[in-house]
Amino acid sequence: MSISIIGAGNMAKGLATRFANAGHPVTLASRDEAKADAAAREVGNGVSSASLASAAQSADIVVLAVPFDAAGNVIEAAGGFAGKIVIDITNPMKADFSGLSIGHTTSAAEEIQKRAPQAKVVKAFNTIFAQVLQNNGQAAGRPATVFIAGDDEAARAAVAELARSAGFETLETGPLATARYLEPAAALNITLGYGLGHGTDIAPTWQRAA
Q1: Contact in structure between 98 and 188 (CB atoms under 8 Å)
Q2: Beta bridge partners of 88
Q3: C-beta of residue 102 within 8 angstroms of C-beta of residue 108
Q4: Which end of the chain is more exposed for a tag (fewer CB within 10 A), N or C?
Q5: DSSP assignment letter at 88
Q6: Dihedral sign, CA of 173, 177, 180, 183?
Q7: What are the residues facing 93 on neighbouring strands?
Q8: What does the angle CA 55 – CA 61 – CA 64 come to, to the nearest 5 degrees?
Q9: Is the pTM of this model over 0.85?
């Protein structure tokens, strides 16, 4: 499946590396096309760059790897992502990282779905640090778990397949509203990693019986 990643930061480059290594065609795009081009050249391995609109149109799956506050502008610039599976990796953290800016009755993922009503938004990869992506998708030597929430069952399954192909474990959590639980889990992970000094080679998982 072809993947377009909107963003040019560490998460975008880390995901591009994992997906390209798994054999998927990957395109990076950004409102700053020069940054996307530089990021694509840094990742290598056949990763290309394109404009927002072109990247969105050509991909089977689009990954939003931008800050939550920028997501609305990106959706508009890309043309709305109609008919596309859109993976939302954002977390609506306050500017000082002291907590989430929204929650309880909504989530970043649900707000993004409102901005892109004709897309199939799936929450995933938001609990994964960029360092884990750089470590072959592993935290402390074991595959990290990607939690997946979405209202469209087929879209959830496609994202789970993508994540597993890149070496991750997966756990579907149900409809998109369960992103209200996944975003606080990510905030806890950020607090542990940065605020309490546990570092970024960590990721939450879920213990299951064999």
Answers
A1: no
A2: 64, 123
A3: yes
A4: C
A5: E
A6: positive
A7: 100
A8: 70
A9: yes
Q: Specify burial of residue 28 (Cβ count, 10 A radius: 0-12, 13-18, 19+).
A: buried
Element (H, E) at 146: strand 145-150
Orientation of helix 33-43 relative to helix 10-21, angle to 10°:
40
Would you kindly state where each structural domain of the chain is located, as residue ranges? 3-195
As assigned by CATH, the class of the 3-195 domain is alpha beta
Q: In this structure, which amino acid lies at residue 111?
A: E
Q: What is the pLDDT of residues 93-133, one digit of tens each?
A: 999 988 999 999 999 999 999 999 999 999 999 999 999 99
**In which element (H, E) is residue 50 found?**
strand 48-50
What is the distance between the alpha carbons of residues 168 and 124, in angstroms, rounded to a whole number?
11
For residue 206, the Cα-to-chain-centroid distance in whole angstroms is: 19
Burial class (CB within 10 angstroms; exposed 0-12, middle 13-18, buried 19+) of 187: buried
DSSP annotation of 177: G
| Contact predicate 87/112, CB 8 Å | no
How far apart, in whole angstroms, are the C-alpha atoms of residue 80 and residue 117?
8
